[in-house]
Amino acid sequence: GFIMSMNLLCPAADFPLLMTSARAEAMDVAPSVDMTRADLHRFLRMALPSVSTEETRYYLDGVYFCKSPENTMRAVATDGHRLARIDSTITWAGPDVIMPRQTCAALMTQVAGKADGTVSMAVAPLFVVINGDSWTYRARMIDGKYPDYTRVITKDADTITATISAAQIKRLGVAAQKHMWQCAVLSPGQMSISDNDGANITVGASVSGPDGFKIGFNRRYLADQAKVTPVFKMSGAGKMDPVRIIGEDPLAMFVLMPMKV
Q1: Shortest CA distance to 27 belongs to which of 130, 145, 135, 107?
Q2: Second label for 127, Cα 20 to 30 Å away, from 60, 62, 191, 255?
Q3: 58, 153 in Cβ contact below 8 A?
Q4: How far apart are CA 21 and CA 25, in angstroms?
Q5: Pairwise CA distance, residues 124 & 11, whole Å
Q6: Rounded to the nearest 5°, which phi and psi values hold at 78?
Q7: Segment (H or E) for 254
Q8: How large is the angle between the packed helices 219-228 and 166-179, nearest 10 degrees?
Q9: How many CB atoms lie within 10 A of CB 124?
């Protein structure tokens, strides 16, 4: 046999310091911004589904906080197939940073369901300190250059439009999980999913476009989108062009790449 001794109540001194004294002094004068817990939760809840999990492109493995053309705080996330751009009315002077996915997930849990109260976020190029009413998060940012996400955002077009709800996607999802179908096809008046043997599940949907057109999307991406925006409008220029997605929040915009049908 063996005997193991474990200290379950570790004193603070047992934890390693995340910052040197010089770094701590720098963070004391770093640019900071105050926001409500609801503001921070909104940024993270809407952006996280679009964050990449691909290790080779590590600079996409987080939420990019940057300054919008209106000098307000903006959050951006993309995995190359979809993109989230979440704007706000919070004045922000920078710097631009990439907050790691794990940090974002932990923070979202911390502020979930707590609309009242404020948090302050002090940001240096590679470090962030976020203070709540009785807690503090210190985290290192991703050291990398975020790509020019604006190149993915196409001009607004309405050649193809669709209004989709979470209930419609859920109905398709029941069949898709059973048969492993992943491509949801939108065509005038309907949304459907089918397999190579010709089996087909169709639900009515508000979809309009040229006669005979079809456009496909990854069903799981649509399901993720529905969790963020339970009802959303899609609009695009053609069947192989990315579409814009808008929900009830006028300051949140998403982009989704289509699949070949």
Answers
A1: 130
A2: 255
A3: no
A4: 6
A5: 28
A6: -155, 150
A7: strand 252-256
A8: 150
A9: 18
Q: Which amino acid is at 250?
A: P
Pick from 49, 47, 46, 93: nearest CA to 73? 93
Burial label for 138, CB within 10 Å (0-12, 13-18, 19+), is middle
* Tens place of pLDDT per residue across the chain (261 aa): 566 665 566 665 565 555 555 555 555 656 788 999 999 999 999 999 999 998 889 999 999 999 999 999 999 999 999 999 999 999 998 889 999 999 999 999 998 876 678 899 988 888 888 988 888 888 889 999 999 999 988 888 999 999 999 999 988 876 555 555 688 999 999 998 876 666 788 899 999 999 889 999 998 999 999 999 999 999 999 888 999 999 999 999 999 999 988
Amino acid sitting at position 219: R
